[in-house]
TrEMBL record:
It comes from Candidatus Desulfolinea nitratireducens. Residues 1-19 form the signal peptide. Keywords: Signal. This is Lipoprotein. The keyword Signal applies.
């Protein structure tokens, strides 16, 4: 029994002595290594960049004709990919009585102008107005289209742009206003489809 107590006492003494042993000092190199490791661990990971999704241009196919512009008490169709906006200066914006809108992209250009009609039954003067300042000239025969209760005059036009080699212009009267429209496109099918979309969705307060 006495031997057993002695052994337990020795074990306890060894435990106490080992606990009181001085701990090895950490060198400056170790401290620096620890600090660097903590700094690197705290750095944010690389941000995953969003991938670019290429969208087809209008040169190879007709534009998606589902857009609708409604302002100045009329509505008109346009390609959904591009938007119509006021082409006039901010200090002289478009009004109900007169104005102009444009829409463009690398593959299309559209211009719409309007003014009070003053009683004329023939809107062809708007063709000259929309093509002024060298924006094209008439080519081919004038095409008359009855769309709903409105009569639209359409004619192919020349263009000064090699990128958009085909153009078309249209004119019509709705209520007390006359409208002129023009578009440039890569080919005549797209130019005419732009006109059809504009005319088929056109409405005004008469």
């Amino acid at each position: 029994m006495k031997n057993k107590i002695t052994i337990l006492a020795l074990i306890f003494l060894l435990f106490v002595l080992s606990a009181c042993r001085p701990k090895p000092s950490t060198s400056n190199e170790n401290l620096i290594a620890i600090a660097v490791g903590k700094t690197l661990a705290a750095q944010p990971g690389p941000t995953i960049q969003p991938t670019y999704t290429p969208y087809p241009t209008l040169t190879s196919h007709a534009p998606t004709l589902e857009g609708l512009f409604c302002e100045y008490q009329f509505c008109i169709g346009h390609p959904v990919e591009i938007a119509l906006f006021d082409a006039r200066e901010a200090e002289n914006p478009s009004l109900y009585s007169e104005g102009s809108l444009v829409a463009y992209s690398p593959d299309t250009f559209t211009l719409l102008v309007w003014q009070l009609n003053h009683g004329s039954d023939d809107p062809q003067f708007m063709l000259d107005l929309v093509m002024k300042d060298g924006l094209g000239s008439r080519l081919g025969n004038l095409d008359v289209n009855l769309v709903g209760d409105l009569t639209f005059f359409y004619v192919p036009t020349s263009t000064a742009s090699a990128v958009l080699p085909v153009g078309g212009a249209a004119a019509w009267i709705c209520g007390d206003r006359a409208f002129g429209w023009m578009a440039y496109a890569p080919n005549k099918e797209i130019a005419y489809s732009l006109f059809e979309e504009a005319a088929s969705k056109f409405r005004c307060n008469q």
